[in-house]
Amino acid sequence: MGEQLLQLLFTGLTLGSIYSIIALTLVTTFNVTGILNLAQGEFVVIGALLAVSLQGTGMPIIAVFIVSVILVAILGGLLERLTIYRARGASNLSMLIITIGLSISLRGLALLIWGTETYSLPAFSEGGSKIVGGAALNPQSIWIFALVAVTLTGLYGFLGHTFWGKAVKASVYNQTGARLQGINLNTISFLAFVAAGGLGAAAGVSIAPITMVTYDMGFMLGVKGFVAAAIGGLSNVGGAVIGGILLGILESFSSGLISSGLKDAISMIILLGVLLFRPEGIIGAIRERKI
Amino acid sequence: MKKITMRLKSKLWLALLLVLSLLISACSPTKEADVKSAGGNEPYKIGAVLDISGNSSSLGVPERDTLLMMVEKLNANGGVKGHPIDLTIMDNKSDETESVLAVKTLIEKGALAILGASSSGTSMAMIKTVQSEKVPMISLAAASSIVEPTSERQWVYKTAQSDIVMINKIISYLKKNNLNKIAFLYMNNSYGDNGKKAISAAVKDSGIDIVAEEKFDANDKDMTPQLTKVKASGAQAAIVWAIPPSASILTKNFKDIGLSIPLIHSHGVGNQKFIELAQGAADGVILPIGKLSVAQQISDNDSQKKVLESYIADYSKKYNAEPNSFGGYAWDAFNLLVNALEKAGPDRVAIRDELEKTQGFVGISGVFNMTPQDHNGLKEDSAVLVQVDQGKWKLIE
User: Fold this and answer.
1) Fewer CB atoms inside 10 A, N or C side of chain B?
2) Does A260 contact B27 at a Cβ distance shorter than 8 Å?
3) Is the pTM for the entire model greater than 0.80?
4) How many CB atoms neighbour CB A11 within 10 A?
5) The domain containing residue B216 runs over which residues?
6) Considering only CB atoms, which chain A residues are within 8 Å of B222?
7) What DSSP character marks residue B201?
8) What is the ipTM of this complex?
9) In terms of CA atoms, which chain B residue is nearest residue A13?
10) Backbone phi and psi for residue B210, each to the nearest 5 degrees, phi listed first
11) Do A107 and B231 touch (CB under 8 A)?
């Protein structure tokens, strides 16, 4: 029994690492721009699919990772200039709808380029799973956690210790005030989408060895990422990571100990519970922005 | 101020239009095969509904490619008694609702018969429509409930071996190797459910016990929790009813947690993609499968050998890739229909009657002998057991 529980915990951590990296990218954009980017899952998928194509040319995995991150970061910036920037001043709801449109268009684009096949990427480190205390641990999930840790430290460092980071924080707290101080909000929004693209691609390349990748996977990933972010309180970077891990562990234990058919129902009930009894997560964040 | 909002609005509209046009171009890849006039006769219209995108695309894509190849070849050789075949293929995106919409569109366009769909769920969704509109349909999916009970399925046929054919193959393997306690894992959809029903019925009075029963979703990324239960249950073999990618992920997890009991899959993983996605973990997997994947290894005396080799040659020449059993189901369905069309002409009732009279038709999936009680017509001799050995299928019996 002990071994079984440990195994379920490891699986939960693997799933949790995937959900938290996606939640993290969602929260980053939301924090900076106030836009819930529903195309985030598509950035993840396009990053992973690009990596599959690049890997096919014989590039080493580290180069594949970097090139894919750069390309999707450029795509993110480009899309911001073409859509969000042009609709600047529109309500948050319009922005949300624009990102839905982006998400559908990107999915269509991925379908045209890569077709409907499922692809996979090799794991970053060779040699399959390690047995720890009688249970198997997938080393790729450690890589994903490393990525989460690097991103978190990077974000805290950037927001707390750089000029641009402070400008971002200022514009989150008070847009008009920030503008009066000479901070260019358009540049900030642009940077947020560049980061969302790059982080999304990094997440995609890291999770593809476990989840494999198909053109239409982004939506489900986006939903799970959103649930994780909402559990953690949509505007909180650390909360997103904890939310993701919680969600992964919950799913793993509920399918391992109760019933595999009830797994998704249980995670959705938890989401509802969080929203009903601790609404300061999602609703609090939105209210704060409106003031 | 008003001007600005107006400008903004028109731009939004433009953006919406752009998105819409992208959507339309991306999501409805309806293909019409070339109709070359063969002797100038009226073409025979037939329709196909396939799972070309979405979860079961690994089934639908080779089926579409096979159908396009067959129509082209047939029309170049003069069609059916001088009538070219006008085939419309529609993508149901692996979705039940889309499947129904597609079959209705095809029937409205005057299709004489419908081929498809690729998976059990999407096929089941179409049955009500073809039964009430009285249009013959040949499904390419496995579940036996697609053609049973035949009293409610007069218009429905199928070419993939029924689950029970494959399950009997597995049961005899289990008995031969004295494996009496088994775990059964299945996908949470109609393919998995039908497999579960069939195996529960088949193990009754056979001395074999199902000691663990677990399901998972087609989108699941990790089946370790379910496999942990299997490990704790003391099963002597695990049987899995699923298709890739989830079947491949499960196989990887199975190897990762160090389970050493035999892993037996269904014919749903009978394509190279399964092995590829499992990244080496598929070695040792046993499964029942049609003879196509091991055509070179079967005996020269086998009546199917010639048909198999010619299909492999045609397909590899055109697409530069090996065909798989799913393409084979499409090959069988198309030829069964062409045979019926030759005898019946453009008449839905007569086509249905001719399909039911099919006897001794040597196809890719087996030798078909249809009767009013059996709208699949395949027996156990249509399947063989294979094992994955260094990424290749190996005949083991």
Assistant:
1) N
2) no
3) no
4) 33
5) 165-297+383-395
6) 11, 14-15, 210, 252
7) H
8) 0.74
9) B222
10) -90, 110
11) no
